[in-house]
Every structure is written in structure tokens, then in C-alpha cells.
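Check my protein:
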Amino acid sequence: MSDRPQAKRITADFLIVGGGIAGYQTALDLLPLGSVALVSRGSIASGSSYYAQGGLAIPWKFDREAVNAHVADTIRAGAGLCDEERVRLLIEGAEEAFVTLVSYGVPFDRDEKGEVLLTREAAHSRPRIVHAGGDKTGSLILRTLAQNVHGHERFTFLTPYRLTRLLKEPDGRVAGGLFMDETGDGWLEILARATIMATGGFSALFARTTNPPSQVGDAAAVCHRAGAELERLAFTQFHPTVLDLPGEAPFLLTEALRGEGGHVVNESGERILFRYHPDGELAPRDVVSRALWLEARAHPESSLYLSVNHLPASYLKERFPQVYTHCLSVGIDLSRDRAPIRPAAHFQMGGIRTDMDGRTSLPGLYAVGEVASTRVHGANRLASNSLLEALVMGHRVVRGIASDRPGRGELALPPEEERDIPQSIPTLPSGEVTMKVIQNILWEKAGIVRFISQVRAGREEIEGYLARMREGPVTTEGLLLWNALELSREIFKDLLVAPRVGANFFLEDSPAGNGQSAQKRGKG
């Protein structure tokens, strides 16, 4: 037996790591099957789900033609790299997801007759997006799900804890996780018959991002060290319309602003996007982000803007209350002013590889939501398919767990050395690398448009830091940097082998390049 101090231990039938929409939907469906422990690094307002301004894409009115059109739009936006069978499973699950949310009490926006309002966003061929509270859809769905879970006798919420290690039974099956208390008050070991990752993406690994600072992919790195397969990490989606003000954090200007008539213009007020795609502002996000990158490269002295001041002020205030209020707080009245924009890292199409029931390459481990790679989104996600994925896959992963579920006998405890509190982790001397350094490497060398030479240089930088790591004390910052460096290495490795289309876009290495070839390749 080890003489090291042991972590506090609790047991549950199911362990969920992550407190966003995917995690709470999964919890709701699991509660009839047993006890659920949901572990989060913060409150429900700490993750990406809470800030989702976009809506929920559904194939209204759920007939064959509507489903087929939604499937086609998803594959087209994904640069053809979607698994069509899986896309269809996702879209066909939309009706159940929507009806379930209505039954929970989500207040979807409706007209004076009580009919659900449908809007259109970029790359959608028709209106099919439903919203709640205008641009507050994510927070209202998440709050409603949480209200239906908290207080249940089988549900336990634990925060603030950071996952540090997966625990396994002697036969290799994942049996829970070891967590560090981020308040510095010890360690927590949770044993469970099924462990579900619902931790979101890793866009905050990039210097400019729409995501909360916590979204840096810790769980993906931890699962990868335990043997879980990662894939498609090269496919980062950059959102094109992100407020760009000196000294201000990036703030997302929802896709719906363009979907409902917003214009992307240059200093002269010229709409520039039709140079790059026949759909202009309604082109897929990866096309629009590349266009803005190329325009900024060609005219570095000029700014680009999102203009909605031709739309009625009353409509903007009612339809986009969150965006309108934030812009006012930084001195921009959208009813009169143009908003300066620049893209930012927004969403990961890849992650922990799963099937369409959330199973990973490790028995007993499941993943759902943005942390998972279902191969549904291809190289670029269709707007508002992310909330749909979180909800539909929340339902599907529970069906997968129910069919795989082992007997209710005692869990075989993981080996003692796995359960010991770690006494050291790989670290670098203090100050040699910071999260900001890693974020700048990824932004500059794995960003919107890449050069092969830069990608190779970025990989060498990350590999160099990893090679110099030595065992050191266990700290929150040390765990953060270790995970970030390991995940960054996998991103750069994937960039060098993934198809160079869609979100994974490359320019030829040319110091005198003017972007003309990329403009031509960016069309379509």
C-alpha cells in the first residue's frame, strides 16, 4: 500500500465532466438509470454554451425534404468532409431534441400567433434557425436544463475541479477520474461505471478567441494520455464577425446579424465578400474568415466592418439585445455605427474520436458535444449546428451507455499507483513558457490561413518546449501548460497531414505573395 496521502473518494453510476448544454442534456437522460456526478471548473456561466448567441438549427417541419436540405447544407459548409450517414442521424434527431426542450420549458421566440419564429444564417439555404430570447439562446437552454437537474436526489454537482487523470479498472476500462480542487483544498477521486467528457473545445488555445479562457482542451489532453484517440484537430473554425476594438476582449457578433441582412464592408462602405463567394455575406464561415484575412493582408492600413445600420433600430434592440447592449457599452450604436471586425478562433470540428453513440476508443469513456469528433461537421461547421449536436448527441450517448452498461456489482478498483495523488508533473522553469506564448504560436502559425514553413516552425517550437520539460511540482498553472503543450503538438501534427481544404487552408510559401491564388481557391 502507498503511504502517500489519498484523495477523497466518491462513487456514482455516471460521471460527467463539463457543465454545458451537452453535459446537462446527458445528465437529464441518465438520471432515470442511476446516480450522476457532474464535475465543472465553474458555474454554468463559465463555459461556451452560456454565451451561444446563435440559435438551434432544425429541419423545420421535420419532413423528408427539410431533412435532406439540412443534410445537404451541412455537407456543403463542411467542404465535403462530413460523414453523410452521421450527418443524417444528427439531423433526424432534431425533432426529438426540439420537442424535449419545449417540454422542459425553453422559451423559444414566437410570433403574435404563437408560431415558432424561424431565421436564416450564413450557408443555410432557407430559414431554419430557432432562437430563445433573441441572441440569448445558449444561456436560456442551459439554464432550463440545469433547473430540471439540480435538486434531483440522484444528481451531484461538484466545482471547481480540474481533471488530471482518468482512472481504469485492471482490465483497462475507464472507471472515473482524479481531480484537483482548484481552490487548493485537496484532491477528489470519482469512481463511476461510465465516464462522459462534455468539456467543450479548445479555441482559447489561440491568442484571439470567442471562447471563455477555460476552453483550452485540458480534458482532451488528459484523455489522449490515457490512450483515447484524437482526430481532425486541424479543423478549427474561425468566426469572421468578432468585434475588434483596441484594449477590448474579442466579442462575438452573432452569425444571425449577417443572416438577417448585415453587410461586411471596407472603409469605403464597399461590400467585399462577393469577390470571394457568390453568396456574399451568406457564404460559409471559413470562406468569410479567409476573405477578411486576405483583405487585411492586402490593405493592412484599413479596417473592415459589419454594418447593420440600415436595419430598424427597434428590430436590432429586440432581436439582438445582448449584442446591441454590449456594443453600446463600448461606444458603438449599431443603429448608427459600423462595428469594426476581425476573425477569432471559435469552434473545433475535431477532438476525441467517437461513434454516433459517443463511444471513444477506450471502453467506459464517452464524449459528447464540441470535445468529441463525430465527423458530422467536416472541415467547417454549419452555423447553429453546434447546439443541435450537443442536444442530439446528449440523447444518443445515453442510449449507447445503456446498451454497454456493465452489471451493478462493485467496481474493480484501479491499481493503487493510479489512484495516488501525483507528486510531480512535467514542467518547465518558471516563466520559460506561458499560456500567452502558446496562444501566439497557434494564432500566428496555425491560424486562419497557414504556410507550410510556419506550421513546421510552430511544431518545432512546441516540440522544443516539451523536450525541455522535467519533473516538477504539481500546480494548477503547471497542469494547464502541460496539457496545452501536448494538445498543441497534436494540432500541429494534424495540420501537416490533414486535407488542405475548408477550415484547413494553406497559402503557398511566398514572401512576395499577394493572396491572388488564395482568392481564386477560396471561391466555391
In short: Residues 27 and 36 are 7 Å apart (CA to CA). The two ends are 63 Å apart (CA to CA). The chain has a mean pLDDT of 92.
